[in-house]
Amino acid sequence: MALRTTNSRLSAAIAAALFVVVVVIYLTWHPGGNSPSTGSANPGGTNASGPGPNSVDLSNSQLSSVKVAPVEERDFPLEKEAVGSIDFNEYVSVQVFTPYQGRIIALFAEIGSDVKKGQTLFTIDSPDLLQAESTLIAAAGVLELDRKNLDRMRDLYTTRAVSQHDVEQATSDEQTAEGNLRAARDAVRIFGKGDADIDRIIADRLADPTLVVPSPITGRITARNGAPGLLVQPGSAPAPFTVADIDTMWMLANVTEADSPVFRVGQSLQVALDAFPGRVFEGKITAIGTTVDSSTRRVLLWSEIKDPQHELRSGMFANFVISLGQPMHSAAVPVDGVVREGDGTMTIWVTADRRRFTRRTVRIGEERDGYRQILDGVQPGELVATEGALLLSNALATASQ
Q: Angle formed by the axes of helices 127-158 and 164-189, to 10°?
């Protein structure tokens, strides 16, 4: 019995000694707990000589997947961007109505046609014009009769065949007829008739009810709702024609409520359109909405865009950029070198020896030409991972798990 107890104690002592030897050998060949030939991470930071809680050591094979470059300094313009659509400038867009009731006789323009100011758009058969011309013809006839009567009265007065009162009455009648004729000429002139047309109506004693409706401005036909035989009324929608001056167009944009305070009337802007890649149209802000849309929380903004070649079309999709001040000189890192972590923070990976990389939280700004502006967290000249930053973040996350 004593011999069995002694053997048990001896076996336990031998096992303990072997365990100590194994631990010593393991710690001797594996000081970091990982093979030196593979990438390693120590999120606990228990080994002072190994990587810290936010660091990753890369093996030789892993280094080929990561590119390193010093942090640059670049100019980042202070700009705001928004999207919008092209529309006609309503300040120089005119709905052309007939000034008097009538039926359309003919139309002389199509949608998309360019017209000059004064060019005939359509004609109507106008009873009002017919009445005005009839009054003109009658007034001209009365004046002619009164003038003959005045001449006769003057001849008779020389022989004392009539009294002075009769001459004065004839003079008054002639002057009244002249006033009536002038009023009748003005009434016909309102319909767009010139003096030559009026003189011809009087000479021919022929009333023409055809009313010509011209274009009030030079521009492009943007809508046509008239048709021959259609009865039209003054101001009754829809207008037979709509003409817009297309030398300038509008861009209507909805900007966010947060961005709206930085915009000012008169600010210059540049507009890019998908229809004209690589081209920039110049413009300026002409008006800013006074209300915020309750559903989208956006503010409507009007911009006037110069279009001397008449290339823009209503409804085109547009992007605009407006400069808010002088460019800002800041540290810059390629976009692939910045990682958005799961908690929303933005990080980069900094290295001093191109093998051990440390994650660092930064505050970012604008993005331009493939670079991200770094407002805080890194200094120009520091070495950072410009490619493979996401690989480093994934390696650290895997090691942590």
A: 160
Q: Mean of the per-residue pLDDT values for the chain?
A: 83
* pLDDT tens per residue across span 383-393: 999 888 888 88
The answer to whether 89 and 250 are in contact (CB under 8 A) is: yes
Alpha-carbon span 262 to 296, nearest angstrom: 19
Spatial contact of 357 and 374, defined as CB atoms under 8 Å apart: no
Cβ-in-10-Å burial (0-12, 13-18, 19+) of 247 comes to middle
**Using alpha carbons only, what angle is made at residue 127 by residues 142 and 179, rounded to the nearest 5 degrees?**
25
Rounded distance, CA 61 to CA 241, Å?
A: 74
Model pLDDT for residues 64-78, shown as the tens digit of each residue: 888 889 999 888 877
CATH code for residues 245-323? 2.40.30.170
Domain with CATH 1.10.287.470 in the chain: 127-195
Cα 323–chain centre separation: 15
Which residue matches tokens 């009538």?
A: 102
pLDDT tens for 141-165 read 999 998 898 888 888 888 888 888 8
CATH match for 127-195 among 2.40.37.10, 1.10.287.470, 3.30.465.10, 1.20.950.20: 1.10.287.470
Q: Where are the beta strands (DSSP E) in 274-326?
A: 281-288, 298-306, 317-323
- CA distance linking residue 190 with residue 183, whole number of Å: 11
pTM strictly above 0.85: no
Q: Looking at the predicted structure, is the pLDDT value of residue 224 above 90?
A: yes
